[in-house]
Design goal:
Helix content is 46%, strand content 16%. It is of the alpha+beta class. The strands form 5 sheets. The chain has a 5-stranded antiparallel sheet, with no helix packed on it. A 4-stranded antiparallel sheet has the order 6-7-3-10, with no helix packed on it. It has a 4-stranded antiparallel sheet with strand order 4-9-11-13, with no helix packed on it. Strand 1 and strand 2 form a beta hairpin.
């Protein structure tokens, strides 16, 4: 057992190092050296061991190359070419079937420029890059830079260290920002689990175990600390197993197929009913008894089995919460389930460890009571609401039409209204105590719940509800969209001979889009859902192409549409200056046999619309992340480097304008 404890310690340290380092495998720093009007810009990348950064020059059809993008290149002129140190290592990539170059450990990119204007000048932009190891790749990421320069000064430095900001969609390893938020969410879930009836009363029992162990105070404290570590190790190992079982190969199937989504939905509903008191989810008694028998052996081994017993005994309360975290993270991602379980277990182990180390704190601990069951019921309402997301994904992907936007909102309004009434004591379950008076915390939570209901209500009439747009079915599924009805009425009321009746050049479609019976673009946009059809129209109208790699189950796609596409500047450009092609990578519609393709990536025949365009994205651009925006000319050549998830509308407008400028140059 001592060897087992050492192994667990080693596993924990390795896991911690992975968590601390790999989520940001590339870190950038920026420097500038100025001599009069000439400036040397230095872009340094520190690359974690085992990872590599792709070269600045790669053939089309490969991964995303490293590129330096300037916001306004009219402020300066380039002096010489981009210098690279060390030179990239070249190799033949069997996956992409291409000769590629990469940097390992470090990359230094140097570009000389000459300022055009006297006085102070700000040169800003971003480095776009993609990093991979032997098992996975990060989504395309960006590192913003800004240099404040003055032509009259001799030297000036840049912004100093800047951490790369990962951006991506649902199908790849998320960026560090998303992981940190998920860690925070899991940590809060761990705190919530402590306040359940089968966990909270065990805190004083745990403390008494270590106080009455008959060992010295120092040994008792060591055992207590190892007890907390064991809780973290047990849950983190569970997360690691999920990461191994549901690795990147299962991502698309888990995220979009009807079977796992319906299973996840059923799991959330069952867990919710368990929290409501309909039944208890318990493990077989022999498992708990076998673990409990090992506790009496004492020492580190006794502490470990004490932790295991706690995990097993509390399963009826923690199981639904742990299950919810694992279901949320089981999208084929490596780090997310590990980080989720680490965050949950850290919060869960904290009070047990602290009270075992400092038993005097027990006097300040609130007494058990009916409030613990109230915590379970509140969590039950939340699980019921969150479970609908999985049913919605299956519904959208297979076009069942059973959970349109207004039905989804109606269910959420009812669920959170009932939660508000429960908190006020107007709704009672079998295990609840009588609420003689409403406490201040219950009142505040009820206010939050009812306020959320009020926020949701306008959504029944078509309000966009941008704050939660990523978790709602798309606006196009809404039957009674008051905003769209008003727009249509205004359009019909316009005079047919006046200026307002004039159609802007190229705004009309060339022909009826394929798949438009069940696929739609947001905000009244018109476009295509078939690549060949859209490209043919773009050539006919002599317009650039805006390709949107998207998905029915893509939360970030819905957020981009609600928060960025809705910006009048973006909407005007998409409507009038581009041919929009939305390619759904998770749609399950079967294609006619004449449209089946054999993948150049994995050699398999793609028979559905989603599989065809998922393969197209990864084969052509080396990316499997949504949303992903590619701007092309009529010859199918990229106008500008593609962009991914970015809620900054100003940057998106710059992205579109840069492509339009480049398109005009190529005419």
């Amino acid at each position: 057992m001592k060897h087992a404890a050492l192994f667990l310690s080693f596993l924990f340290l390795v896991g911690y190092q992975l968590f601390a380092q790999i989520i940001e495998p590339v870190k950038w720093t920026f420097e500038s050296k100025q001599d009069g009007n000439e400036v040397t810009l230095v872009f340094k990348a520190a690359i974690e061991e085992g990872w590599h950064l792709y070269d600045t020059q790669l053939p089309d059809g490969g991964p995303v190359k490293t590129s330096i993008n300037f916001a306004d290149s009219t402020l300066f002129g380039f002096v010489g070419e981009l210098m690279k140190e060390p030179l990239p290592v070249e190799y033949f990539d069997k996956i992409f079937n291409l000769k590629l170059g990469y940097f390992s450990r470090q990359a230094v990119l140097t570009q000389k420029i000459k300022l055009k204007n006297p006085g102070k000048t700000e040169i800003k932009g971003f480095v776009e890059f993609m990093s991979c190891n032997d098992e996975t790749c990060t989504p395309p990421a960006e590192a913003d830079f800004s240099f404040i320069l003055n032509s009259s000064s001799d030297t000036d430095s840049g912004t100093g260290p800047v951490v790369a900001k990962s951006e991506g969609g649902e199908k790849q390893q998320p960026g560090s920002g998303n992981l940190l938020w998920f860690f925070f969410f899991s940590f809060l879930a761990g705190l919530a689990a402590i306040l359940t009836p089968c966990v909270f009363p065990m805190i004083p029992m745990t403390v008494s175990f270590f106080m009455n162990s008959g060992e010295s105070k120092l040994k008792s404290k060591i055992n207590a600390a190892f007890y907390g570590f064991s809780i973290i190790a047990i849950y983190t190992i569970v997360g690691t197993l999920v990461a191994v079982i549901f690795g990147p190969g299962a991502a698309n199937w888990l995220s979009t197929h009807w079977l796992p989504n319906l299973i996840f939905f059923a799991v959330f509903v069952i867990f919710a009913f368990s929290f409501f008191g309909m039944f208890e989810i318990v493990l077989p008694s022999w498992i708990v008894n076998k673990s409990d028998q090992q506790v009496d052996k004492g020492g580190l081994m006794g502490s470990f089995f004490m932790a295991l017993t706690l995990v097993l005994v509390s399963f009826s309360c923690t199981g639904p919460i742990v299950g919810a975290i694992l279901v949320e993270s089981a999208g084929g991602q490596i780090l997310k389930p590990i980080i989720g379980m680490f965050g949950f277990s850290l919060a869960f182990a904290l009070p047990f460890t602290l009270f075992a180390l400092f038993p005097g704190w027990l006097t300040s601990l609130p007494k058990s009571g009916g409030w613990l069951n109230s915590v379970k019921v509140v969590l039950g309402f939340l699980e019921l609401a969150l479970g609908l997301k999985f049913l919605s994904v299956a519904d959208q992907t297979y076009h069942w039409g059973i959970l349109d936007r207004e039905v989804y909102l109606a269910l959420w309004i009812v669920i959170f209204a009932l939660l508000g009434f429960y908190l006020l004591g107007k709704l009672k379950f079998s295990h609840d105590s009588d609420v003689k008076h409403v406490t201040v915390p219950r009142l505040l939570l009820a206010i939050v719940s009812f306020s959320f209901v009020v926020y949701l209500a306008p959504g029944m009439f078509g309000a966009p509800l941008k704050a939660i747009s990523g978790y709602l079915p798309p606006q196009s599924t809404h039957d009674f969209d008051l905003h769209q009805i008003i727009r249509d009425e205004i359009k019909l009321a316009q005079p047919q001979g006046g200026i307002s009746a004039v159609v802007q050049p190229g705004k009309e479609l060339c022909e009826k889009p394929k798949f438009s019976e069940f696929l739609h673009l947001p905000h009244g946009l018109e476009g295509y859902f078939d690549y060949e059809q859209g490209m043919a129209c773009a050539r006919k109208q002599n317009k650039p192409v805006f390709i949107d790699f998207t998905g029915h189950g893509c939360v970030n796609c819905r957020e981009m549409e609600a928060n960025v596409w809705s910006d009048p500047r973006v909407l005007e450009r998409l409507k009038n200056n581009f041919v929009v092609i939305a390619l759904y990578v998770d749609d399950k519609s079967t294609l006619p046999e004449s449209e089946w393709i054999t993948s150049t990536y994995d050699g398999k025949v793609k028979k559905t619309l989603g599989k065809k365009y998922a393969d197209f994205q990864i084969s052509r651009y080396g990316v499997n992340a949504q949303p992903y925006y590619v701007l092309l000319d009529g010859k199918e050549q990229k106008l500008i480097e593609p962009r991914a998830y970015d809620l900054n509308a100003d940057r998106f407008v710059e992205f579109l304008d840069a492509a339009l400028t480049e398109f005009k140059k190529r005419k």
